[in-house]
Each structure stands twice: as C-alpha cells, then as structure tokens.
Amino acid sequence: MNLLATVANFILPGIFKEVDKAIPDQDLGARLKASIQTAVLSADAEALQEQAGIVTAEAKGESWLQRNWRPLTMMVFVFIVANNYIIAPYAQALSGTSVSLPTPPDLWALIKIGLGGYVVGRSAEKCVTAWKS
Fold it and tell me: 13: how many CB neighbours lie within 10 A of its CB?
C-alpha cells in the first residue's frame, strides 16, 4: 500500500472527525474536507502519472533489455509458479519424481508489484489521456 492510499484509508477519517469537531459550520467543514480530499486525490494522480511515465520510458527505451526486463522477470516468476503448482505435481503423479524449484519468500509480493506496476501504469496512462480530452 502506498503512502497516499494509507493517508486516504487511515488518516483522512481521523482528520475529518477533527474538522467536524473544530468547525461548527457544516458547510464550511464540508468544503474543507472536500478540499483536503481533492488535494490527496490530486497528489495520487500525480504519483500515478509519474509511475506511468517510468514504465512508458522503459517501454520506449533504446536497449532491448531496457524495454523487456519487466516482462522477462514476470515470465520467470510465471514459470516458477507453473512448475511448482502445475507441472511438478503432475510429474509426481505420473512418474513418481518431480523437480520443484524453491519458491523465493517474496515471490508473491514481487508478482503483485510487477503486475501492479504494469496495471497502474496502463490505467494511469488511460486516465491521463481521458482527462486531457
């Protein structure tokens, strides 16, 4: 979870409660809360745009490796998962032997980050394009 999501999910409700306590005028309090929420969303959009820019720059890079290191890394992870959870169990059932690769402890976290980076990058790219039009 990124810092902005943490702010939005955990800190903003507390801030909004304090705004309700400190500002008796409900309209003014609602405007202040909307302003705070808009600032957080704007910062989140900027962060997504920067992440999308990084992915786009890598995808347009001059080097083959620069353009393809993320997909290659993800393919290695997919192979490890497919081997350990699909191929090896069937090989064990059919022949009594199997070769299972050790699963790195943070494999699932890296897969989430890798897929998340791609999905967030593509989503931000589409959002920015839609927002500009």
Answer: 10
